[in-house]
């Protein structure tokens, strides 16, 4: 019975595929797409400091806007705009354990050049490569005793990107997007008494609704 149901579902999907392809508007040169949704910013723990230990930053979920412009049906430029808050610390410091550095905000605009191999399909995947520049600001919050100031320096990073658009209507799309950003900002504590580099290299995973103009 289950085999028959699966076979029937496959047959129905196969029969419907041409109709779905015909109904899809697809991606065209000159399209401008505005998206709004949520992203998860998921840093890894890595790097080093002058007193030992490993820098670490917490995960964060935050709203995001993104803008996509199609140079051709297959080639697009995408820019994301969001800001996220992270708790930061140094783990496994010899003789001290974990040192709390408070919190910091990150503003990580990322420009990506994307390739869309199936621009006419309702399910339209893509891959991309891009450049990130992250601005760190708002350092503060509760810190371990003896920590008077923390400065996380702005940094450049490379990004890889993969995702998929689903065309709901000719103008409305749903999107799933994954980015990996290689990001290693320098960190100064107490005016440089302690220095380090945090290899954050975050995954950025987002879902959004997009409107195509």
Automatic annotation (TrEMBL):
<keyword id="KW-0732">Signal</keyword>
<protein>
    <submittedName>
        <fullName>OmpW family protein</fullName>
    </submittedName>
</protein>
<dbReference type="Pfam" id="PF03922">
    <property type="entry name" value="OmpW"/>
</dbReference>
<dbReference type="InterPro" id="IPR011250">
    <property type="entry name" value="OMP/PagP_B-barrel"/>
</dbReference>
<comment type="similarity">
    <text>Belongs to the OmpW/AlkL family.</text>
</comment>
<dbReference type="GO" id="GO:0019867">
    <property type="term" value="C:outer membrane"/>
</dbReference>
<feature type="signal peptide">
    <location>
        <begin position="1"/>
        <end position="21"/>
    </location>
</feature>
<dbReference type="InterPro" id="IPR005618">
    <property type="entry name" value="OMPW"/>
</dbReference>
<dbReference type="GO" id="GO:0055085">
    <property type="term" value="P:transmembrane transport"/>
</dbReference>
